[in-house]
Q: What sequence folds into this?
């Protein structure tokens, strides 16, 4: 599958998943703007893409503010003439339980993930609408945002917001032919390698050079960053021309379509509900089968 002639921005692509996305898009023929706050890492990715015969340029700047989003789009246009694909991947973690989380920890995560996605997608949508040839916004969500996760108030809120923005923008941008999807990735990176149930297997695979074990790849859906990059190439390509407004999970050997929130059970009471009426009907009515929440705990081996 190729994306020849397309121009992509990948935020946070100095390492981890973003680097794999940038390299895979370049290998499939796209010109790529590599963005990161780590200048050395961004330069290394550009060098790697160019040595493999691809086209790339670096923008070293923190996403979150409008000026940086505008700079990313302007660089794509100045260096490669247009913009077709925006991948909003940059991210940080500042995990802490609610009662200990600081304002700064909350704001930092919201700024990079939620505001970074908003500002970059907005700048990209403006340019793509001007070009008049459609485009792709590929947003990065997370199982934590889909389900909630212990210690991740800031991150889960940002990622749930990103999935909500994908659905909203899929509606708003449909007429312009701009497709918007959220990717829900799982991969062994700096961000996930310390999860206790996974760490020994990841370390073992790295030490021996062997692939990650089948239980991790299949049951837990945790694999390499390259596993996830295939989905980014698909969503950037003409092959995904019918795909928009979706949240698509990928990791290891698993590929999944996430459901969107929808009413699961409904009850009616003529002239409205009193608190007593809700209490009386809860356990035999809409509360009979409450929803589960949280990412299922890894099983480990
Ligand atoms: N690894 C996983 O399993 C997983 C699961 C769900 C979601 N994600 C999401 O995927 C994305 C990438 O995750 P990863 O595991 O590769 O993380 P990572 O920490 O390995 O890489 C993140 C990159 O983003 C860069 N970055 C941080 N703040 C930035 C900013 N303001 N502007 C530009 N660059 C910035 C970092 O320097 C780093 O290079 C994140 O959005 C993350 O939340 C990852």
A:
């Amino acid at each position: 599958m190729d994306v020849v002639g397309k121009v992509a921005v990948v935020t946070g692509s100095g390492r981890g998943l973003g680097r794999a996305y940038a390299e895979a898009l370049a290998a499939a023929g796209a010109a790529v703007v590599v963005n990161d706050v780590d200048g050395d890492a961004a330069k290394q990715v550009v060098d790697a893409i160019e040595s493999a015969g691809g086209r790339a340029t670096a923008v070293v700047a923190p996403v979150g503010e409008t000026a940086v989003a505008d700079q990313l789009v302007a660089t794509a246009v100045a260096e490669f003439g247009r913009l077709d694909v925006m991948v909003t991947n940059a991210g940080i973690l500042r995990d802490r339980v609610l009662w200990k989380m600081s304002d700064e920890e909350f704001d930092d995560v919201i700024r990079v993930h939620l505001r970074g996605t908003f500002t970059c997608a907005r700048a990209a949508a403006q340019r793509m609408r001007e070009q008049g040839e459609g485009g792709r916004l590929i947003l990065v969500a997370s199982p934590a945002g889909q389900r909630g996760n212990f210690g991740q108030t800031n991150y889960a809120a940002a990622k749930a917001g990103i999935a909500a923005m994908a659905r909203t923008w899929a509606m708003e941008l449909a007429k312009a032919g701009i497709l918007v999807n959220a990717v829900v990735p799982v991969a062994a990176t700096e961000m996930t390698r310390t999860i206790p149930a996974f760490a020994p297997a990841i370390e073992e695979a790295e030490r021996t050079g062997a692939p990650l074990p089948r239980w991790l790849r299949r049951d837990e859906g945790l694999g390499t960053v390259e596993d996830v990059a295939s989905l980014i190439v698909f969503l950037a390509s003409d092959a995904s021309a019918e795909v928009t407004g979706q949240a698509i999970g990928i990791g290891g050997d698993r590929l999944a379509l996430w459901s969107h929130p929808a009413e699961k059970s409904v009850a009616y009471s003529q002239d409205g509900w009193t608190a007593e009426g809700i209490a009386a009907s809860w356990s035999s009515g809409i509360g009979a089968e409450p929803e589960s929440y949280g990412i299922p705990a890894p099983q480990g081996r």
